[in-house]
Design brief:
Length: 53
Amino acid sequence: MKKYNLKDLIYFEEFTDINKATAREKQLKNWHKKWKLNLIQKVNQTLKTLDYR
């Protein structure tokens, strides 16, 4: 996160298989910004910062 100077986590997905996680990351990178926001809002409607520490 330091590389991108991110401050807040508002969405994440957990995987037990690294290959599935990598495939999902590549899939999401090809999505439009609006699609990603809709995905996030399904889980986190208020865009509240999640505790990840």
